[in-house]
Design a protein that fits this description.
With about 110 residues, the protein is mainly alpha-helical. Helix content is about 60%, strand content about 0%.
Length: about 110
């Protein structure tokens, strides 16, 4: 899922953890699933931001530095306004867009 097109809220939302963990049956397992996805999203966002800011990397001083600095600030503001990775991960989990499995539970079924 593209984190830029997410409809996750940009601020904190109170959630009922028992309802959220209904399909796994374990609150801690649900939190682990969401946290792993949030880490994946965070790495993707950081990599994307670093690529965009790398375009502005200059190793010499010039008069155009002020203009480039404004563009860097705009890019940084855009990424600051995006929802946090944990909120995006919770939204994906609630919408059923995450695939997860527990190998230890699968081992018991054999």
């Amino acid at each position: 899922m593209d984190y830029r097109k997410s409809n996750a809220p940009s601020n904190t939302v109170t959630r009922d953890m028992m309802q959220l963990s209904a399909d796994t049956g374990n609150v801690y397992e649900t939190v682990r699933i969401i946290s792993k996805r949030a880490n994946q999203i965070s790495v993707e966002m950081k990599k994307d931001l670093d690529q965009k800011l790398q375009e502005f990397a200059s190793y010499n001083d010039s008069l155009e530095e002020v203009f480039e600095n404004r563009e860097q600030i705009e890019i940084s503001r855009y990424y600051e306004k995006l929802p946090k990775p944990t909120l995006i991960a919770v939204q994906e989990y609630e919408e059923g867009k995450l695939y997860y499995r527990n190998p230890s539970k699968e081992k018991d079924n054999f």
